[in-house]
Amino acid sequence: MESDELKSSPKLETVTFSEMKHEELEALVEFMYSVDGSIPSESLKKHASSLYLAAEKYEIPHLRDLCRRQLISSLNSYNALNTFELAQIPFDKALNDAAFTTIKRSISTIANSAEFKSFVASNPYLSVEIMKAFLIQPNNYRCGYCGIYLS
């Protein structure tokens, strides 16, 4: 005879992903149901940051690794600050180092941007680390035309 627990109808549980937009959630579900643990490259490129956060939150290491690789490969002076901030929660050394290197390489462009002013206000400790790294560079003057550091 079956116990009363087995006879009762299964309970449906609802999981809310309030931090994700609809398209981001679709990309996550697509990854979760993929046979080979992959995600279409366009979805990964478009949603790498939010999927990275979801992978951390829901402990999906393979997705986190895919997102990390995408974030590192697409680093530039326009997204380096956001990526640097993302690498802190929790700390991801590979992502942190790649973003920090990009920031140091593009500091003259980044330091004059509105994004940097906002970043300084919300991340004072990280901002100090960026400025310290720039100030202790042995050759911190770079030619704006060719990119070569000058003494």
From TrEMBL:
Domain of life: Eukaryota
Domain BTB as annotated: residue spans: 11-74
Pathway this chain belongs to: Protein modification; protein ubiquitination
Xref: InterPro entries: At1g01640-like, BTB/POZ_dom, SKP1/BTB/POZ_sf
Pfam family, one: BTB
Summary of the function given for this chain in its UniProt record: May act as a substrate-specific adapter of an E3 ubiquitin-protein ligase complex (CUL3-RBX1-BTB) which mediates the ubiquitination and subsequent proteasomal degradation of target proteins.
Listed name of the protein: BTB domain-containing protein
